[in-house]
Design a protein that fits this description.
Blueprint: H1 2-29, H2 35-47, E1 51-62, E2 70-79, E3 83-90, E4 93-100, E5 103-108, E6 113-115, H3 129-145, E7 148-156, E8 159-165, H4 169-177, E9 185-193, E10 196-206, E11 209-218, E12 234-235
Parallel strand pairs: 6-12
Antiparallel strand pairs: 1-2, 1-11, 2-3, 3-4, 4-5, 5-6, 7-8, 8-9, 9-10, 10-11
């Protein structure tokens, strides 16, 4: 009897050991998602938002200098599903394009809007001008969601910085720059704030020249609401 009584604790210890091993295995199965999944989730959360403001800063200069010789800044307001307003500032001047569904407008500075009319028949293949504009605005997020070789670069409070290789890299660069990019040094960073993308950065260097693109996302789900301009806000004179 004494032997049997003494054996009981060892049996319980064995059971506890098995339970402990099971807990470890379970914790591995339910561990926090990896960096690639975290980045994909944040990109999709931002892409699926009802609205946001995107600040696109493109700089060009020499790899031997820390200052850019040319810089262009665009502020883009996005309203799902088919409304986009883009204001570009360069050389001390600004111009704005507004697309609401299939209606398009433009203006210089803070002047009145000029009605560009709908796209030419047959050029959009059944897709509205607004839907086409939105697809361009969202593509960097689509590419980010398909990123590979993702790793955590740094973390601080509720923000994390990731390095990655974007999905469809050549197409992303073509859409961002409007031209194919020759071989050279390329690096990509994404900063995640909470559950959304905060900044997506592209850094390109080739033959002594450097181009950087920073896409900053703000006001997620709280961007200004875009409307068709009132008749009193429209002019028949094209902007100069």
């Amino acid at each position: 009897m004494q032997i049997e009584n003494r054996a009981a604790p060892h049996m319980m210890l064995g059971v506890l050991t098995l339970l402990s091993l099971g807990a470890i295995v379970y914790s591995l199965d339910t561990a926090p998602p990896n960096a690639q999944l975290q980045l994909r989730t944040a990109a999709n959360n931002t892409k699926n938002a009802a609205s946001f403001v995107l600040v696109d800063v493109e700089s060009a200069g020499s790899t031997s200098s820390s200052s850019a010789t040319n810089q262009e800044r665009a502020v883009i307001v996005y309203n799902a599903p088919d409304r986009v307003e883009e204001t570009v500032t360069a050389g001390g001047r600004s111009g704005t394009v507004l697309v609401v569904g299939n209606r398009r407008y433009e203006r210089s500075g803070s002047g009145k809007w000029f009605d560009l009319g709908p796209p030419a028949s047959g050029t959009t293949k059944g897709t509205s001008a607004g839907q086409i504009a939105v697809s361009e605005i969202l593509y960097p997020l689509t590419s980010l969601a398909g990123a590979t070789n993702v790793s955590v670069h740094s973390t601080a409070h509720v923000s994390s910085v990731y390095t990655f290789v974007p999905g469809q890299e050549a197409l992303l660069l073509l859409r961002l720059l409007g031209t194919s990019v020759p071989p050279g040094t390329r690096s990509y960073l994404a900063t995640i704030h909470g559950e959304f993308v905060g900044v997506e950065e592209v850094d390109l260097s080739n033959a002594g020249e450097r181009i950087t693109i920073a896409l900053g996302v703000t006001q997620v789900d709280h961007a200004p609401v875009l409307h068709v301009p009132l008749p009193s806000q429209i002019t028949t004179t094209p902007p100069t």
